[in-house]
Design goal:
This protein is 41% helix and 8% strand. The protein has 341 residues and is α/β, with parallel strands linked by helices. The protein has a domain of 205 residues: Rossmann fold (3-Layer(aba) Sandwich). A hairpin with a 6-residue loop joins strand 5 and strand 6.
């Protein structure tokens, strides 16, 4: 098996940030004071975003030579960030691929329909605005106070699949990030009784499309900072964005609280999704528990049933901003393993 590090370090163009710390845009704080320090932080943020998106693309072979990638733009910070970083990577990628932006205008009351066409025209990117009144359908079908997301997402998904076929898109790019993936994992555990997250790459339900999530490795806090820095014309959603008590929001708040109190916990949770041990779960479809027999041959893995495995210190991005409080509380992030009896 090829490790993530082995894969990504052999991906020139995707991972190379395209500029280095010696460039004028990365001037040291000592030379330019507070302005220089902020400029350097902005440079590091861009470098980190490009690196994480590039890593995800390489690790899961998301974009290939000649692809026509349909970038789904909602008007939120995440999809704006995805388009922005994909354009930067497109300019230096080792392969040739096309981007076409699609926005679904769901006819929500007060939706500023002029903003995205004006922004995309100024950007010089190919785009298509699909007009479909799914808002009225959702409001008519779902009782007041009930969660709108399920029906809204199904309607939106079907429309986007159709548009992808009409445009000849070979990949559909969605703007979900690392925090979305972890939220989905916990939601499925808490309310769906499934150990299931949100895949970085999948084949659509109808088998006709490949859906990719290039920002699978990106932290939401970085996207928030990038949106402020780039001054994207954010368009709030009046459907899901207006439902303050959604379970997803509650789980998201829980993750943010953990990140404050226990630095490294979120990174460890995400890494766990890439380090699955089926023999230590309980799904008989993933491991042949019922047919296990003693072989008399020692296993290289050893008997892990009663071992207290040492917990490695969480790996932090050296370029990510840290605080003294966060550094001081690292030790509290370690959860002790109970001794077997």
């Amino acid at each position: 098996m090829v490790s993530t590090m082995e894969t990504t370090t052999n991906a020139p163009g995707w991972i190379d940030p395209g500029f280095d710390d010696a460039s004028p845009t990365a001037a040291p704080a000592a030379e330019y004071g507070a302005a220089g320090k902020q400029q350097r932080e902005n440079h590091k943020l861009e470098k980190r975003l490009c690196r994480e998106v590039g890593r995800a693309i390489v690790d899961y072979n998301m974009i290939e030579e000649g692809d026509r990638v349909m970038v789904c733009l909602s008007g939120g910070k995440d999809s704006y960030g995805m388009l922005d970083i994909l354009q930067k990577l497109q300019a230096r990628a080792p392969i040739s691929f096309e981007l076409i932006v699609v926005n679904l205008d769901q006819k929500q009351p007060g939706f500023p329909e002029h903003i995205l066409p004006a922004y995309l025209t100024k950007l010089g990117v190919k785009f298509h605005i699909e007009n479909q009144d799914t808002y009225s359908i959702v409001k008519r079908v779902i009782p007041e106070g009930k969660t709108l997301c399920s029906l809204c997402s199904r309607l939106r998904r079907g429309i986007l699949y159709r548009v992808a076929s009409e445009l000849g898109a070979t990949k559909i790019a969605l703007g979900h990030h690392r925090d979305d993936i972890l939220q989905t994992l916990l939601l499925n555990m808490f309310f769906g009784a499934k150990l299931k997250a949100m895949p970085p790459k999948l084949v659509s339900d109808d088998g006709q499309h490949v859906v990719i999530r290039p920002m699978a490795y990106v932290a939401e806090k970085d996207l928030s900072r990038w949106a402020e820095l780039r001054e994207f014309p954010i368009i709030p959603c009046t459907l899901c964005g207006s439902q303050e008590n959604l379970q997803r929001k509650q789980v998201g708040n829980m993750l943010k609280e953990w990140e404050k109190k226990f630095p490294g916990r979120i990174e460890n949770m995400f890494s766990a999704l890439q380090n699955v041990v089926p023999s230590h779960l309980l799904d008989t479809r993933l491991h042949p528990f019922t047919t296990l027999k003693a072989t008399g041959v020692a296993s290289e893995d050893g008997d892990k049933a009663f071992d207290e495995e040492p917990l490695p210190a969480p790996e932090f991005d050296t370029e990510a901003p840290r605080t003294e409080a966060g550094n001081a509380s690292m030790a509290k992030a370690v959860i002790p393993i109970a001794t077997a009896h």
